[in-house]
Every structure is written in structure tokens, then in C-alpha cells.
Design a protein that fits this description.
By secondary structure, the protein is an alpha+beta fold. Helix content is about 40%, strand content about 20%. The termini are far apart. Bound molecules: adenosine-5'-[phenylalaninyl-phosphate].
Length: about 375
């Protein structure tokens, strides 16, 4: 039994009402703070908060109780614990107010939500929606058709060198056929240019993959040309290339026929083949299709009932050899058509320049 006369203040500061020594004040401050925070954390209503306020911060609360007991301490210890208790009180008051504000905010949000009615079945107001550019739409459609026929989609650089754009395609430096492709040169000394056709992708693909090969390469081309309703300085083409044993013109025509049938929604369009000249194919042809928009002539086909579709032919032996493919063993067909011109046909676009004019009114139609 410890009597009050034997108490050494610095060791045991308080007596219970049974005369038992209590924890040191230091420990009580720590415990109080811990319990206060833990109860505050759990409080989820204004009532629970009010209870905590009364228990800890009220006039007869735990902090007030500790303050009371401070009076009985010797001066030295008052000096030590006084500021600590003040700090504890301030800390508890601030933390309490923060929690109160947080709960208030939360309650307001809940009430707000209850008031708001969210109708998941309501239809949206007329919101402006973006869409893919018509050229992109058509390119994706064409890619899908060729993929379904077993072709791979390939790409090549738009900045090319003279070798890939001309020489490898059997168009030597002084070849008169170069006039067919008015070229935008980037750097004459390094022979850099903007590719004039996607046929340069043939060279990359054949040199890289050799034979057999079945690729389709959509992409932008550039020409040093004056523009009008059907000619642009920048336009898109789609190149096709198939190399294997015994490839013939029949394979080319069957591929083109199937492609047209799929593109123009199962319509059986007649094809017309005309001889033509491109240095990188032999023989060279041009393929026309029956106009899909009329029976007896219209403004799209310029009343001829035929529309020029693409340049094509069997890959020239010189081109195969240049790319390291033995022309005695392999043969191939190639075709190249204007994607931009096809988009004009499909969507009845009267002027090619509309396609990159960034005119929202025009683009909204697709
Ligand atoms: C060529 O570019 C050949 N490379 C096509 C080819 C590939 C032939 C494989 C044989 C084998 P051409 O210059 O005709 O050919 O262009 C092909 C298509 O590109 C044209 O039919 C046309 O649709 C489109 N085109 C050409 N110049 C322009 C232009 N300035 N603006 C818009 N489209 C164009």
C-alpha cells in the first residue's frame, strides 16, 4: 500500500481515488491523444462527434480533468507539463474541427446525390460527334478486303531516294518515263525526294522478304503538279504486289474482280482491260470498271459508262532481279490505284482538294 506521504512526485504523480498510483502524466497525455484519434476516426455521424467533443473537449471532459490535476503538481512539473497539455488541447480542437468539416461535406454530398435523379435510359441531347475522315474510312475498308483475300498490309517511307522510287523500278536516270512522275525533290545532292507513287514500297518489300509475297501498301504520294478538281500535289494510292510461282495476268484480273465486287457491295461490275505502259511491268495494262453509279452514263463517268481504276501488269523481270528474286523461278503481278480518286467516286466528292481542306461542314457529312 502506498500512502500519500511516501509518494515521490517525479515517479508517481497521481493517486486514484483508491489511493493507487496512476500512470505518469506523460503517458496519460500520449494515451489520451491515441484514444481521441482512434475514436474520431471511427465517428461517422454528428451525434458520434458530439459525444467525442463532450468526452474529450467538454468542460468536464478528459482534457479538462488533466488540466485540473496539473494544479496539484510541484512547480517544476507544472512548467514541464503545462505547455504539453495546452498543445494537446489545441491539437484535439483543430483535429476535431477538421473531422467535423469533413463529415459535413460528406453529408451534403449524400443529400445532393439523393436529390439528383439519374435516368440511365434518357437519350443524350444532340451532341456533336466526330467521325473518321472519308479517306481513312475507305482505306480501312480496302485493307479489310485485301486482308480477307490473304494479303498483308505493308508500309514504306514517304521520303524516298531516287533508287527506290525510280532506278529499282526500271526507270533509269535519263528514262523518258520519268516525265510521267513530276517529282518534288528534297535534296538533289542526296537524291532525296517525296515518293511519287507507292510502287517504291514494292522494292522495300521484295528486298526484305523475297518470294513468295502478297502485300498491299496504302500511302501518301506527292507530285509537282498544278492542282485542279481531280489532281492534287498530295494524294493517296494503294499498291498491290503478289509474287509466286507461275503468276499470270489471270491471277491479277481475278484479284481485281473480287476486290471490286466486295468494294461495290456485291454488284457484278464489268471490267475492261487496256494495254498501257509502265516501265516496271511487262505487259502493262490499265483496268477500267463499269460505272457503279449509272446505267447509261453520268457526270461521274463523264458519260462513257467506264471509270479508270488502276495501272497494273506483271512485274518486270528487271525489277525482280534487282530485288534479288530470280525471274526464271518467280513471276508476279502489281497494281496501283488512286485511293483519293476512289474516295471521290464512292462518296461523290466533286473536288479532290476538299479532302484536305479541313472544312468541318464538309467532313460532317461522313
Ligand atoms: C502509277 O503511279 C503507278 N505506280 C501505278 C502502277 C502500279 C502501275 C503498279 C503498274 C503497276 P499513275 O501515275 O497512273 O501510276 O497513278 C496511279 C493512280 O494514282 C491514278 O490512276 C490516279 O488515280 C492516281 N493519281 C495520279 N496522279 C494523281 C494526282 N495528281 N492527284 C490524285 N490522284 C492521282
Amino acid at each position: 500500500m502506498v500512502s500519500s506521504a511516501t509518494i515521490i512526485p517525479s515517479e508517481v504523480h497521481f493517486l486514484t481515488n483508491l489511493g493507487m498510483p496512476m500512470q505518469s502524466l506523460d503517458q496519460q497525455i500520449k494515451d489520451l491523444k491515441k484514444n481521441f484519434l482512434s475514436q474520431l476516426d471511427k465517428a461517422d455521424s454528428q451525434d458520434a462527434l458530439e459525444e467525442i467533443r463532450i468526452t474529450y473537449l467538454g468542460r468536464k471532459g478528459k482534457i479538462a480533468d488533466l488540466m485540473d490535476q496539473l494544479k496539484n503538481l510541484p512547480l517544476e512539473e507544472k512548467k514541464e507539463f503545462g505547455p504539453q497539455l495546452n498543445e494537446l488541447k489545441k491539437f484535439c480542437e483543430i483535429t476535431f474541427e477538421e473531422k467535423k468539416e469533413h463529415l459535413n461535406h460528406h453529408r451534403l454530398r449524400q443529400e445532393q446525390r439523393k436529390k439528383e435523379f439519374f435516368d440511365v435510359t434518357a437519350s443524350l441531347p444532340n451532341m456533336p460527334q466526330g467521325s473518321l475522315h472519308p479517306l481513312t474510312q475507305l482505306q480501312q475498308e480496302i485493307n479489310d478486303i485485301f486482308i480477307s483475300m490473304g494479303f498483308e498490309i505493308a508500309q514504306g517511307p514517304e521520303v524516298e531516294n531516287e533508287r527506290n522510287n525510280f532506278e529499282a523500278l526500271n526507270i533509269a536516270k535519263d528514262h523518258p518515263a520519268r516525265d510521267m512522275w513530276d517529282t518534288l525533290w528534297l535534296d538533289n545532292t542526296k537524291n532525296l525526294l517525296l515518293r511519287t507513287h507507292t510502287s517504291s514500297v514494292q522494292i522495300h518489300q521484295m528486298e526484305e522478304k523475297k518470294a513468295p509475297l502478297a502485300i498491299v501498301a496504302p500511302g501518301r504520294c506527292y507530285r509537282h503538279e498544278a492542282t485542279d478538281a481531280t489532281h492534287d500535289f498530295m494524294f493517296s494510292q494503294v499498291e498491290g504486289l503478289f509474287v509466286d510461282h507461275n503468276v499470270s495476268l489471270s491471277n491479277l484480273l481475278a484479284t481485281m474482280r473480287e476486290f471490286m465486287r466486295k468494294l461495290f457491295a456485291q454488284k457484278q461490275l464489268n471490267m475492261r482491260v487496256r494495254p498501257s505502259y509502265f516501265p516496271f511491268v511487262e505487259p502493262g495494262i490499265e483496268i477500267d470498271i463499269e460505272c457503279p453509279f449509272c446505267n447509261h452514263g453520268c457526270s461521274v463517268c463523264k458519260y462513257t459508262e467506264w471509270i479508270e481504276m488502276c495501272g497494273a501488269g506483271l512485274v518486270h523481270p528487271n525489277v525482280l532481279d534487282f530485288c534479288g528474286i530470280n525471274h526464271q523461278e518467280y513471276s508476279g503481278f502489281a497494281f496501283g490505284f488512286g485511293l483519293t480518286r476512289l474516295a471521290m467516286l464512292k462518296y461523290s466528292i466533286p473536288d479532290i482538294r476538299l479532302l484536305h481542306a479541313n472544312n468541318v461542314e464538309f467532313l460532317k457529312q461522313f
